[in-house]
């Protein structure tokens, strides 16, 4: 007796194998990643991993966040290589397996600033040139991705090298020069991703929304999660995100532009305010907009406390104490019961040499802390330490 069911199972199996063969043949068998040593201009050895695609194609440079190292990209890099995109990941100096000192290993703010603004860009350029020289890489079509502190480095890389054709930015913004560059780059698509519960970067979701608004490329994509954490941590919370990034780079680097996703609706009031404040000598217009909004509705919330706080400190870091004071003053007006806004304003006054005003605002911060139940304990402790340190530094007021 012939087993018709067995015969059917055999035929079905052969059919499945026949159908699977073209897929298997079409899949790219990529070699394992190659670990390489790169030499920075000052002789520091930087560790990198090159994930080669099976066929020639575009290249991608991925830059890690500062609480991680290059290996956090391994899963995404392998997916990109399997999709035909060559990837280089690199440890910043002082991180992972690279030599040298990172900005968190030096004693002065000035030295840390010099590392980030001078040594890191030179290191990133070394990695970029290595990527371009690989035989499987189309040196004229490069993508770049960055998470957290790697975001500004990725944007500045694109600013220096027109071969960079698209960017993936996770959980951070770029500095003023980078924002102006993105605003003036209609053919540089951005993929931005952020989570509202980011524990490391208060206000980052709003400032990335601003980047999305001001960048004119119609193919921009903004992925905004309510939860997910900071930078590459979002990959665990949202396992679909790496696949979205692979599709994004495939689309933007292979001459098949992504379908327009960038909303052409008017900017939010917050984005318009920030754009004004970011212009050279634009604070007067931003302050006028704020005053007009408050006059029309005294309860209006034009910006979040965290957003203006970080924007003010950005200006403080570049020595622009006048604009920092103006921003912090607006934060005080908008959030008069927050001890943090007074402590920040005190920092700006101290940097400007206005000791009495610095002392007054530090004292106000401590007064409000006594009844503060809104801020988490960790933030309250930080505000208290900051305010008390200023008062200790300033001493008693002159009689």
Q: Total number of β-strand segments?
A: 8
User: In angstroms, what is the radius of gyration?
Assistant: 25 Å
Order of helices and strands: HEEEHEHEHEHEHEHHHHHHHHH
Helix-residue proportion: 40-55%
Net shape: globular
> How many domain units?
2
Mean pLDDT, to the nearest integer, reads 89
Distance between the termini: 113 Å
Instruction: State the secondary-structure class.
Output: alpha/beta
CATH structural fold name of the largest domain: Rossmann fold
Q: Could you give the order of strands across the largest sheet?
A: 1-2-4-3-5-6-7-8
Strand content: 5-15%
Q: Outline the low-pLDDT stretches.
A: 1-27
CATH architecture of the largest domain: 3-Layer(aba) Sandwich
Q: The biggest beta sheet, please?
A: 8 strands, mixed
Helix count, DSSP H or I runs of 4 or more residues: 15
Class of the largest domain in CATH?
A: Alpha Beta
* CATH homologous superfamily placement of the largest domain: Alpha/Beta hydrolase fold, catalytic domain
